Amino acid sequence: MDRKRIYLCLAHMSGKEQDFIKEAFDTNWVVPLGPNVNAFEKSLQDFLIENGKLKIENEGKQVVALSAGTAALHLGLILLGVQAGDEVICQSFTFCASANPVTYLGATAVFVDSEEDTWNMNPVLLEEAIRDRIAKTGREPKAIIPVHLYGMPAKMDEICAVAEKYGIPVLEDAAEALGSEYKGQKCGTFGKFGALSFNGNKMITTSGGGALIVPDEKAKKAAMFYATQAREPYPYYQHEKIGYNYRMSNICAGIGLGQMTVLEEHVAHHRHVHELYEQAFANVKGIELKSNPDERFNANYWLCTILIDKEETGVDCEELRVFLDRKGIETRPLWKPMHLQPVFAGSPCYVDGTSEKLFEKGLCIPAGPCVTDEDVAYIVSEIKSCICK
Ligand SMILES: *Cc1c(COP(=O)(O)O)cnc(C)c1O
């Protein structure tokens, strides 16, 4: 069979990336600052804030381009004053990069399980966790990191209400959610800080990169200070804080600028692919496609995801994954919850079995810009042929 292998989410170039990179070379801006970085930040800002339907109080938000989404989360925690010995509440059902930066700082990640509607942080468990941490440690956790997993917005009204009640700032992990909206507002702009990723397989790529969405100009200055080795304003190199080398290269930002010209197209394509799956799986017993729970949610469907009911289909998700792999279709188990990861074995967790069940039953299926209508038809027919055997 000489069908091309179908991947989950391949990078897809607009063609304009190389023009921006060439200009950077021609003008010798081959450094981690420059016109492409500034223009990329402005373009993201326009997309997230000016074009989104933001509340007035959020209008001062700014974007800082960085070397990775993980770096953005790390800097966000630093700007929130997280230090060794502190606790930070994380979503358990996520990629490790949501929680690792907490550990970089010597703080402890406290894991909270997901709810069924969005697969994201359960606001009821969140409040239980906060109360219990206060009872056990005598102080509030320093931050809350909800995630918009697979591009599905978390229940931000409920999460922010709990956060406000206890005076704990929110750092949104929107790494998978560029273009997703909750009640018409772009994901990443709800928390005090928000993190984006432009890794190779995300909604857009800079070959590797990220951004921190910050509340104002002052926070932007602070983020840039820490992202460029915390250099004090002296003629010589004076350092009073520990800094990082986290700025985005002007070359990578050139790729990002090219990608911004196709971002809306990418988001529309992911949603189109989801719609095709939705129609195709409507009458398939035992396969449940994840969709927006109600009209507040407008996912970008970065990856489409399904739950497989073994009783109904006769196969479990690993059998289906291996079968599809042989047919040239890449799929992947859902994220293994952090509270089940050996590396986080000692971390407190507040779980009710939801993410464990999702991990057991779920698969990511291809949804990227290179997935055609014909690919979707092929994927669906192979899934059907596997479960009907
Ligand atoms: C990709 C990802 C990150 C990290 O982004 P990088 O750019 O790869 O460092 C963080 N959180 C989640 C949920 C992600 O999917």
Automatic annotation (TrEMBL):
<dbReference type="GO" id="GO:0008483">
    <property type="term" value="F:transaminase activity"/>
</dbReference>
<dbReference type="InterPro" id="IPR015422">
    <property type="entry name" value="PyrdxlP-dep_Trfase_small"/>
</dbReference>
<keyword id="KW-0663">Pyridoxal phosphate</keyword>
<dbReference type="GO" id="GO:0030170">
    <property type="term" value="F:pyridoxal phosphate binding"/>
</dbReference>
<dbReference type="InterPro" id="IPR015421">
    <property type="entry name" value="PyrdxlP-dep_Trfase_major"/>
</dbReference>
<dbReference type="InterPro" id="IPR000653">
    <property type="entry name" value="DegT/StrS_aminotransferase"/>
</dbReference>
<keyword id="KW-0032">Aminotransferase</keyword>
<feature type="active site" description="Proton acceptor">
    <location>
        <position position="202"/>
    </location>
</feature>
<dbReference type="GO" id="GO:0000271">
    <property type="term" value="P:polysaccharide biosynthetic process"/>
</dbReference>
<protein>
    <submittedName>
        <fullName>Aminotransferase class V-fold PLP-dependent enzyme</fullName>
    </submittedName>
</protein>
<dbReference type="InterPro" id="IPR015424">
    <property type="entry name" value="PyrdxlP-dep_Trfase"/>
</dbReference>
<dbReference type="Pfam" id="PF01041">
    <property type="entry name" value="DegT_DnrJ_EryC1"/>
</dbReference>
<keyword id="KW-0812">Transmembrane</keyword>
<comment type="similarity">
    <text>Belongs to the DegT/DnrJ/EryC1 family.</text>
</comment>
<feature type="transmembrane region" description="Helical">
    <location>
        <begin position="63"/>
        <end position="82"/>
    </location>
</feature>
<keyword id="KW-0472">Membrane</keyword>
<keyword id="KW-0808">Transferase</keyword>
<feature type="modified residue" description="N6-(pyridoxal phosphate)lysine">
    <location>
        <position position="202"/>
    </location>
</feature>
<keyword id="KW-1133">Transmembrane helix</keyword>
